[in-house]
Amino acid sequence: MNNVHSSKFGLRSGMRLLMIVLHFFLSSCSMRQKANDTEILKRDDKLYERYLHGSLVQARESMQESIALAEIPKLKPEGHAWWLFFDYARLYGVETKTGNTDLAHAYLIKTRYWLLVYHELKTSIRQAIESDKQYSDAKIIEFVDQWDKDHNDGNPPAYTNEIADILRTP
Question: Which of 168, 141, 139, 152 lies closest to 51, judged by CA?
């Protein structure tokens, strides 16, 4: 009888130990994922800084890199959609301002898609469609331009000076 009791006790203790080890293992994985997400967000912040302060080429490249980076983290779906909306909206603005209408149009389609996905995740498809109607093509550029100024000490991104110089050149 003692063996049966000690056997049950051993099984319970073993299960508790297994649960504790499993808890610490899962917590460790979660902490590693959070550290990884933090590192990815830091990398994206650096790309955004390059977009704000770099040349036209650097602005384009940094948004392309940011789009690729958005595929790595396990963000909430609405966070992922919002991230891609902003990157494509910025690229839409860059290409519109430089007169690359075909590329601007492609980025506008992607901008609208991710905006629709974002609103759909937050509400419903019908409400998402209504929300999307509030953003004209010009309003998207205005929204992103204002956001960039608000996050750059009231100044537009540096690439806009390069575009102005290009447009002034005969």
Answer: 152
Question: pTM of the predicted model, to two decimals?
Answer: 0.71
Q: What is the pLDDT of residue 78?
A: 87
Q: What's the farthest any 2 CA atoms get from each other in the chain? A: 100
Nearest Cα to Cα of residue 117 among 101, 102, 129, 100:
129
The answer as to whether 10 is a domain residue is no
Percent of the chain with pLDDT over 90: 52
Residue 2 lies in a domain: no
Name the domain count of the chain.
1
Task: Please report whether residue 56 resides in a domain.
Answer: yes
* 149, 104 Cβ separation under 8 angstroms: no
Angle between helices 101-122 and 77-97 (to 10 degrees): 160
pLDDT digits (tens, 9 = 90+) for 90-128: 999 999 999 999 999 999 999 999 999 999 999 888 888
Residue 72 is given by DSSP the state S
* 29 inside domain: no
Domain that holds residue 70: 42-168
Token code pair at residue 137: 């093509």
